[in-house]
Each structure stands twice: as structure tokens, then as C-alpha cells.
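Deviations from the work plan: none for this task. Representative record:
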Amino acid sequence: MAQREVFISTLFEKAKLDKDIYLLSVDMGAVSLDIWRDELPDQFIAMGISEQNAINVAAGLSATGKKVYVYFMACWVARCFEQIRYSCAMGKNPITILGAGPALGYSPAGPAHSPVEDIAYMRSLAGIEIYSPACDRIAEGLVDLTINEPKLRYIRLERSYPKVMDKVYSDKNIDNTFLSKGIHIIKENSNVLNQDLCIISSGYMLGRAFEIAEKLELQGLGVSIIDLFKINSIDDKYLLEKIKNYDTIVTIEEQFLSGGLGSFVCEILADSRMQKEILRIGLPNKYIFDNGSRDHLLDSNNLSVNDILSMIMSFISKKTHKSMELIY
Amino acid sequence: MNTQELRKIGKQVRKEIFKFKTKSGAGHLHSCLSCVDILVSLYYDHDTYFNHQNDMMLFSKAHGSPSVYPILADLGYFDRKELGKYCTPEGILKLHSDSTIPGCYFVGGSLGNGIGYAAGLAYAREKNIFVLLGDAELYEGSVWETLFFIAHHKLNNLHIIVDRNGLGILGATEELLKLEPIDEKFKSFGFDVKVVDGHNYDELRSAFASKPKVPNIVIANTIKGKGVSYMENIWQYHTIIPKDKDLIKQGLGELS
């Protein structure tokens, strides 16, 4: 199931009992939305294709005490960035923005439908929290958080994701404390003598991170993987504690490198004065016009498993060389 | 309150605005002077349906919002001394009003957004929401997105007022980029449209005498810089506040 179906259908069950929950759709459909429209028409508003107005109306409704969700494609947050900044962030009106299909999630729809820099611009807003759920269970868990702890939030809902993530999160207690923390160690290397490399990633790219970690381990490296599913206001101390023993940090994201997940991690490290070798891996700084599936586009734009592996190996070998020089 | 008394208040409000604007040198005196009579009519004329104690007035055209400061001070929202502290670190009154100021309800300063926010407030059907737009603000595409929404949902508790002073920063709207026919455009959305002289208290009273049953707008034809002869309708004054002592003296004299 797409994450939006899980989120909207879970929210629908809550909305049946809470008349203050409103869903505003900017001309976006979903199976779960059809049921909502039939059963709770008074808590659904069709906004038409008008992102700016949708956000302004949502902010106004929020000011009257309503719990407002605006649903559209993730790429359109750029189109109403001013309204999110002005009416929501500046106006202190907490709403939840549901962005479907982040990054290359709508491939092959082309660059206009592919927000490959949305983390950078959205995280620049004061007070906003960005969530990138890796699987349905996290998307589901976010419903309760958004209802009970109102804040300005942007939730990037994947249309599909690697199946392995369902397994990773199947037995986890995904409550508001867990979600607020913002990170989860999805693969821990318990051998303290062999903690070489920690991969930090989120969303769709975690599938590739798993494959890469397996291959690195075959070469004798100790590797852990962190799902950084939240950007802004995370539990910094917990993150630092979990990475402190690793020599090298590798961030992998389906975004431009400027201002994205890797930058966020670098800022936390710089602010804490923790020194690490950091390799940031992301999309090349260009808009992608190629045809093909999401996997095809990732593979042909520096983010194939082999591309990432060679970047990591090359980075590690240079580092080792440098260390050797220091020794002599 | 009769027309003569309203005129007197209007003049007093203009004079106070002129005083704190020339003292601080900050903001848009020209735009403030065009919307004074609209606000005086709503806040003081009890024959209009605006009730400042229950209803909300939003300034989508926030650069004109300092016009309401002398009114809010007079009605007890804050100390009159605040007017003298306008745009100073010690004062609460800002160049663009925002929700930290008693009697103001929305962060101001980004045109084309106040109307959408007002529509969201109005959708909850709890209050009457008034929103003041500048005429050149109608160029913003977001305004027109909101008009579809207001019309479809028949938000008749949202009362739009356009301060039609005819000027943008660079000159006359009709010479630079045509807005007219504004009334016809709103009528095509099914709005109740009234066009009035925005400086005539009798016309303003009749425009706001009874609440329309459908979405509504009052287009108030006004003069930018109204009350100060050398500023009236001179587009170059948009961001210029008189500094010359003689000009300030003349302005105060004309507003007394």
C-alpha cells in the first residue's frame, strides 16, 4: 500500500471521532480519500489546483482551532513556499503538509514532478519538522503525533519503498517519543573493535543502503545504518552517541547535496565539535530529464549500488593513505 | 454617529498618522491616508455592521494598516503613547501590523495572502471576517485562487474591501497594467459588488448598512495621500514621507 493510503485511512478513523480534523486536497486523489469524501464530506475540502490558496486557507482554519492536513504532490511545496513561510511558519499556524512522491518518486514524470531539493528549502523554515517515513508503519504512527502534538510539519509520503523496511520496523513500538527522536538504528554493528563506517540515509534510499552495507561487510568492514527519518528538532545527543565510535560517516540521499540530509548531519557534527570523516552522497547538481523508472534514474545518476560502493571505497582508501602519512 | 462627527474623527486620525509617520520616517504614509475613512466608518459608525468587539479586521494590505493604530488606541486596545513609539524598539506598533498588536490578527507584509487566510477563518463560520486589500494587490494570482474558493463556499461572512486608490508604486494601475473592470470581474464570481466613494461617510454607511447574503466586496474609490494636498494622487509619494519642515507644517495645518 502507498504510504498516503495508510496515512489517510488512519487519519480517517480519527476524523470520525474528531470533527476538528480537516483534509484539504489540492486536486489529489487516493482510494482512502474516496471513502473519506463519502462518509465525512464536511471534513473534506476540494481546493482545486491552487496550492497558495490551500495553504492560506489551511492556516486560517488552523487559527480557528482546526487540525488541518493539506495533501498534494511533494513537488508543489515549492509553489506555495511563501504561503508556508508566511501564513504558517511566521503566523504560527501549525498544519500538516502531506507531500506524495518525494524526490524521484513520480518518475518518469520528469524534473517538474521531482523535488530533488525539497529537504533543503523546507528545513530552512523556523519551527518546521520534516518527516520521511521509510515504511507504512512510520507513516501510520505519524497520524497520532500530528493530531496530538500540533506543529508545522511536512511529511514526505513514498508511493513505494523497499520491502525490507517493513521487516525492519515490524516489531518496533512506533509511538510519539520514538517519532520525535527522529532516528532509528536499523542495523547496528555490535563489534566495538570493528566499527568502521556508519551510513545515514532515509526513505527510498535505505533499500540501497542495505545492499551497500552487505557488500562492505563482505570486505571485512564493520557497518551500521541509521534511518534519519526526521529533519530538524531531532535528538542530537542520541545521534552523536550512536555515531561517535565510527571513523567514517556516509550520508546517502536522493537530493542535491546542497542543504539536504548530509548537510543537516554535518551541521549537527560541527555544532557538537565532533570530528569525523564524512562522505556526502547525493544526486548530481542538475535536473534530470532522462526517461525511465526511479531505479533507472538513480542508477544512471551516480546512485547505483556500485557507484556508491566505489565512492565509499575510494574515500576510505584516500583516508587510509592520509593516516599512513601521518604515522610516518 | 453622524457624518459630521465621523469627518472630524477622520481628520484627527489622519493627523495622528501624519505625526507618527513624519516623526519616524518609516512606512507608507501615502497608502495609509487613502484607507482612513473606510476604517473610521467601520469602527465608529454604529450603522455599519462591523463590530470591532466580535468581528475580525485583517489587513491584507498591511502597509496601510498603521491607519488603524490611532483608532485602536482611541478604543482602548493599547495606550495612546504607543503612537509616539511607532517603529521604535520601545514600541509595539510596527510598520506592518501583526498579531502581536492588540486588535490585529494576522502577520502582515506579504501581499495576496491575507484574503486566503481570511477565507480559512471565515470557513469555520464562527465570526464575521473583514479583509482590506489594496487595489494593486489584485495583481497577485493567489487572490484569484481564493476568489474561486469564496464563491464556491458562499462565504458571506467574509467581507472584502478594496482600497481603490488607483496607484501602484510606479504610477496609475490603468496606465501600467489594467485592472478594470474590477466590479465586473467580481460580479462574474457571483459577488455582491458595491462601488463607493471611499471618503464619503454616507456612501460607506449605505455600503455597510446590511450584510449581503452572498459573498461580497466593497470597492472604495479613494485618493492616495488624501488630506495632504501636495501628496494627493502623486504616485512618487508611495514610499516617501515628507521631511522638509515647511511641508510637515503645511501637512499638519491641512489636517487640523
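The first helix of chain A runs from residue 3 to 15.
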